């Protein structure tokens, strides 16, 4: 069934957008049932919008949408490319669903610890589904990519962590409640772990070997779309007797779906193997000193 969908471009596109909308629905459900009623702000523009909701009364969905679209527009200049229709659909759907569901979905629990746990799990599942279908939050991840490109100081993952921490800290200050800040950290930790598991199991990163006649094009897209480098090996097919190029790259778990989409778009006949990695050290990943 899944292979038939992949072979049919129209069906695959419909399947991906349905998945994106379903994932976005789960994140909006988590926000309305657990996070917003309990003032939980686990990073991102949605977390910032939650704080502003209690300070100004502005709708969470609308504020999240405005911040995300503004970031996407700025990224066109800084990153020099469009963030894509899927990112905009995610942003629009989340903004609409959060505001529409606000008056319909009642808070599930006023036990903040219980709400933090369920919020992290449900939000993580939603984000995992969303990323697996090639979607993107289109918010602070874009902001992190812009900061990474401009400063060239910290890794992309470090910038994302810094932005999320600033939002959590802002929530603690705005609400004058350190407990809220700590509960938000619990949500942030849980949802990132669950999201990574939904995307690619419990492995830190994947090593990809890609045999293709269009290796240079694939390498360029890996560099521009995933902000990762790649190595091309010249190989010789023992059975076919033909010379082939093999692209080798390491990507994070939440980039696997995008990598497969890039490969399929450029060369549907490519041969790809994905392997688990125990640890990755070097540029773009963890430094040798463990940082």
Automatic annotation (TrEMBL):
Its main location: membrane. Gene3D superfamilies: 3.30.70.120. Residues 229-282 form the DUF2179 domain. GO terms for cellular component: plasma membrane. Pfam families: DUF2179 (PF10035), YitT_membrane (PF02588). Keywords: Cell membrane, Membrane, Transmembrane, Transmembrane helix. The chain crosses the membrane at residues 14-36, 51-76, 88-106, 112-133, 154-174, 180-199. It is a multi-pass membrane protein. It is found in: Cell membrane. The keyword Transmembrane helix applies. This is DUF2179 domain-containing protein. It comes from Eubacterium limosum.
């Amino acid at each position: 069934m899944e292979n038939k969908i992949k072979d049919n471009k129209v069906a695959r596109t419909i399947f991906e957008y349905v998945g994106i909308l379903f994932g976005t629905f789960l994140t909006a459900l988590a926000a309305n049932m657990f996070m917003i009623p309990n003032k939980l702000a686990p990073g991102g523009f949605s977390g910032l919008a939650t704080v502003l909701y209690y300070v100004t009364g502005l709708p969470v969905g609308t504020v999240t949408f405005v911040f995300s679209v503004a970031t996407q527009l700025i990224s066109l200049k800084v990153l020099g490319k469009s963030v894509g229709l899927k990112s905009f659909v995610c942003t629009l759907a989340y903004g609409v669903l959060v505001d529409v569901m606000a008056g319909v979905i009642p808070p599930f629990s006023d036990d903040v610890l219980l709400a933090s746990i369920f919020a992290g799990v449900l939000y993580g599942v939603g984000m995992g589904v969303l990323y697996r279908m090639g979607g993107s939050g289109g918010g602070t991840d874009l902001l992190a990519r812009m900061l990474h490109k401009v400063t060239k100081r910290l890794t992309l993952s470090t910038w994302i962590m810094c932005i999320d921490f600033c939002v959590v800290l802002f929530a603690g200050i705005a609400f004058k409640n350190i407990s809220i800040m700590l509960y938000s950290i619990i949500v942030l930790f849980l949802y990132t772990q669950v999201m990574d598991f939904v995307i690619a199991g419990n492995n830190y990163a994947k090593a990809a070997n890609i045999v293709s006649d269009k290796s240079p094009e694939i390498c360029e897209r890996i560099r521009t779309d995933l902000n990762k480098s790649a190595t091309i090996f010249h190989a010789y097919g023992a059975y076919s007797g033909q010379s082939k190029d093999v692209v080798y790259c390491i990507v994070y778990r939440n980039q696997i779906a995008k990598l497969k989409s890039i490969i399929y778009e450029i060369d549907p006949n490519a041969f790809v193997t994905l392997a688990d990695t125990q640890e990755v050290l070097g540029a773009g990943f963890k430094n040798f000193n463990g940082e």
